[in-house]
Design goal:
With 647 residues, the chain is an alpha/beta fold. It contains 21 helices and 14 strands. The protein folds into 2 domains: 224 residues, no CATH class; 384 residues, Alkaline Phosphatase, subunit A (3-Layer(aba) Sandwich), CATH 3.40.720.10.
């Protein structure tokens, strides 16, 4: 027992006590803001989630202490023990201080402090005076801080040097094993995956798994975690190109108001986000390739396009999977960082689910990976989706193949999971809004055994057989959906999450081609017009276009446009390829924040060989519009103005 690090466990326990005490102080201080939907059950859920985030923060702040305290040699030397003590006390005292300071500051911002706070106050000359006033006003926090610091100081324990007096080979092995185990647990704790699997470390957005409202995520979180996790994400710098608000609004207005001639249609909405479904793979969009012989890899998608509404040029707004959900379902673009990893991920947002909830729509999101994969569940919750169905739910449904349908890497193969998706929708009350994110067309580029002879490798790239498989899975899904009672009263949207790096034609390898994806709207009833419009569509446009078509009766914020009421020559797309880009008409504008760096007539110059900066009048108008998009979007992100205030 002398060799076991019970003193380390005790000290870490003290850190947990301090974090929970700070959480209770935060809740008490801000009770008027947080009490609206608070119950003992919801608080216990938040505290349970808080342990996950406290663990991550403590693993970060105590990492040096754990390293020094558990080194399998030298513990009998006093300098090492003194260093370990200070490595424990200093970070945890700072954690107490910033947690309590944030408890007082929260009422001004209504969100936990992030690393941006250092930039926000860097030019504040009277900062010490402001802090002094707040210290006096919140004297009780000073007393609590002193009590918790005393607890850490007096409660700290260390192993006596005599415990190492007798050292055997077996005891040294124990020390080494404990040290290695502590490292593994610490890394797992930092990732938020101590007792579960996860494809990426937790972020502040994951707090939505334990809260029902954006403001409640602040009870789940702690300030040290928020600061640490946002150190690399500096937020969107708010440019000021227009000081006149009316001028800014005339160039770009993300608040959408109901149309006076709207017709209400309480149709179901089904959104299919298909992994890596780049436009290059769609044969009907590329008849000009390979001398007119190119056929692509998506015969079903080609047939669906022929009876759908689409646009001549269609683009994604980001280049990773985690960019897609905010863009498609909530009309939120990627700026410098993915929205879900940004300092604004806890902002209150609009989405298809939140808006259609006002009309009594049931909402559900589907993804065939484990429930915490990619942080999708957390974003779905923040976006207001009522239900979330994952790999675990598929396993639990005995009508399907269970673990036999696991692809061995990511989740359930697309074909069976799309059938599960169809079945679950039939069990929902109407109207409903659902979305699914497929996963089979992804590295390691495998397909089910029964299809290996049907969709073999074609000698170009292994992804292509996966695209063929997923396209066939979509065919089976629509065949099943067509037999359901809700089918005729449903509008379907199909798009990719992003394009693919596995492109083989040069025009899809450019700064513009990298964002080309299919986007289509399909209404089986035929009420929505069909055909290809000579305009530009993007993922950001999906939400406002759907709400417009349904005749939605409330104002909302969306950073895209309504494609049904915007003339084709006024349509545009925005994305960020290291620097912001605006696509409008025949032109692509690239802008470094100060001036245009690229201007291309992309429809006739698909390889972007001829930079026309400074030579055409269209450049000036597009530059003004792009500046307005950048400024208005940054302002709304920073000021948490992503919903229309309710009266």
């Amino acid at each position: 027992m002398k060799r076991l690090p019970l003193h380390v466990l005790w000290n870490v326990f003290l850190a947990y006590v301090c974090y929970e005490a700070c959480r209770l102080a935060f809740l008490a201080e801000n009770w008027p803001l947080l009490s609206a939907n608070m119950s003992w059950q919801s608080f216990l859920t938040m505290s349970r989630g808080g342990l996950l985030f406290d663990t991550a923060a403590i693993c970060f702040t105590c990492s040096l202490y754990l390293l020094l305290a558990l080194l399998p040699f030298g513990q009998q030397k006093r300098p090492l023990r003194v260093a370990a003590k200070w490595a424990f006390l200093v970070p945890n005292v700072l954690a107490v201080v910033v947690n309590l300071m944030d408890s007082a500051y929260f009422s001004f911002t209504q969100k936990r402090v992030t690393a941006n706070v250092f930039a926000e106050f860097e030019n504040e000359g009277n900062l010490l005076g402001i802090i002094g006033v707040e210290v006096v006003r919140h004297w009780y926090f000073v007393l609590l801080a002193l009590a918790l610091i005393t607890l850490l100081w007096k409660g700290y324990r260390e192993r006596r040097a005599e415990a190492y007096a007798s050292s055997t080979r077996a005891s040294k092995v124990v020390d080494i094993l404990v040290f290695l185990l502590a490292i593994a647990l610490c890394v797992g704790g930092m990732r938020g995956a101590l007792f579960r699997t996860a494809t990426r470390p937790i972020t502040p957005n994951d707090a939505f798994r334990y809260a029902s409202q954006p403001i409640e995520t602040n009870v789940v979180l702690n300030t040290p975690f928020n600061i640490i996790k946002t150190l690399k994400h500096k937020g969107v710098k708010t440019p000021v190109y227009y000081s006149n608000q009316a001028e800014l609004d005339s160039l770009y207005m993300p608040v959408h108001t109901p149309r006076p001639d709207r017709i209400e249609r309480r149709k179901n909405v089904v959104v299919l986000i298909v992994e890596s479904f780049a436009e290059e793979f769609i044969g009907s969009r590329n008849r000009h390739l390979d001398g007119g012989t190119y056929r692509g890899y998506t015969p079903f998608a080609d047939s669906l396009l022929s009876v759908s509404l689409t646009w001549r040029s269609t683009f994604c707004n980001g280049w990773t999977s985690i960019d897609a959900m905010p863009a498609v379902l909530a009309s939120i673009p990627r700026m410098h960082d993915p929205f879900v990893l940004s300092t604004y991920s806890l902002n209150k947002i609009n989405s298809l689910a939140t808006e259609l909830a006002h009309w009594g729509y049931h909402s559900a999101f589907f993804h065939g990976a484990e429930s915490n994969s990619m942080g999708f569940r957390s974003f779905a919750r923040s976006a207001g989706f009522s239900d979330y169905f994952s790999r675990e739910d598929y396993y639990a449904d005995t009508r399907f193949g269970g673990k036999a349908d696991f692809d061995g890497t990511w989740g359930i193969w697309d074909e069976p999971f799309l059938q599960f998706f169809c079945t679950k929708m039939t069990e929902m009350r109407e109207p409903f809004v659902t979305a699914i994110f497929t996963l089979s067309s992804h590295h390691p580029f495998a397909i089910p055994e029964q299809y290996k002879d049907v969709f073999p490798d074609e000698g170009i790239h292994a992804l292509h057989k996966c695209i063929r498989y997923t396209d066939n899975a979509l065919r089976h899904f629509f065949a099943s959906a067509r037999r359901q009672p809700w089918y005729e009263n449903t509008i379907f949207v199909l798009c990719a999450d992003h394009a693919s790096s596995k492109t083989t034609h040069d025009e899809y390898k450019t700064e513009l081609g990298h964002f080309r994806i299919p986007i289509l709207f399909f209404d089986p009833s035929g009420e929505l017009p069909r055909g290809c419009i000579d305009g530009i569509a993007q993922q950001l446009d999906i939400m406002p276009t759907l709400l417009s078509y349904l005749g939605y009766d409330r104002p909302f914020v969306a950073f895209g446009k309504d494609l049904l009421t915007t003339s084709p020559d006024s349509t545009w797309a925005f994305n960020n390829f290291n620097i912001p880009q605006l696509i409008k008409g025949d032109y692509l504008l690239q802008f470094d924040g100060q001036q245009p760096t690229g201007f291309f007539r992309y429809r006739s110059d698909s390889l972007l060989h001829h930079n026309l900066v400074g030579s055409l009048p269209e450049e000036k108008a597009m530059t003004r519009q792009l500046k307005a998009i950048l400024q208005a979007t940054a302002e709304r992100l920073k000021n948490n103005e992503m919903v229309v205030p309710t009266e």
